[in-house]
């Protein structure tokens, strides 16, 4: 039976209703203007911007940020600072916070991350996307040739808002069979500005793809996607090809915003598009 640990964050999440004209402007700025810059320059600017949040003065932003974004005023007490630190020494420490206790769930499959489920559907039923005049299938996100992923697999894309927990965990017990890094761009991730194609950034942004084979021999495909101001995506030091991993082992962490895509052998049972998912809840 599924349980909901008391340390889960407030599940209220606003799906912003951006007018079409404004979404078009945001998309133009993200894809045509910012996206038109060389990827290396995007990363340099993003890394410079991200460094601001590593400065000691930035720790004073944490309390007002919590006040604005969380109904639970004891929220931060449910997490530890990263790297064994005694205190949150910068705003970046808040972004990379760690659970004091990893969620427990008896279900065989759980959500690997926290955020807004902005796209969901069978792989074979999701339309192709046009990226830089090139048509691409869902498989492209995961660094694979078209139609390699079984059409019956279920695709999900979870957008991690800046306020969300920014570590990605393993959804199942299994064995890592592939790790791939794709450099790519760092265009804006926020799905509500792309309207009918919320996964557009995942087709072209920098990402790590990780395949996990479960006990039944079926593959779960994960793509960990970065966005603007993401200075880096860090894989956990224990992650390697051929390694056996257990459900909710840590896979990676982000700095600032991010997206996690997954193509799985089964569909989520309790969540649908535009709902909020949390680490460790039943998939």
Summarize the structure in words:
The chain is an alpha+beta fold and 283 residues long. The protein has one domain (20-277). The protein is built from 6 helices and 15 strands. It has helices spanning 20-34, 39-52, 62-69, 91-95, 138-141, 200-204; strands spanning 79-80, 98-99, 115-122, 129-131, 134-136, 154-160, 167-169, 174-182, 207-213, 219-226, 233-235, 244-245, 250-254, 258-264, 275-277. It has an 8-stranded antiparallel beta sheet with strand order 12-8-9-10-14-6-3-15, with no helix packed on it. The chain has a 3-stranded antiparallel beta sheet with strand order 7-13-11, with no helix packed on it. A two-stranded antiparallel ribbon has the order 1-2. Strand 9 and strand 10 (219-226) form a beta hairpin. The chain starts with 19 loop residues before the first helix and ends in a 6-residue tail after the last strand.
Annotation keywords:
alpha+beta, 18% helix, three-stranded antiparallel beta sheet, globular, 6 helices
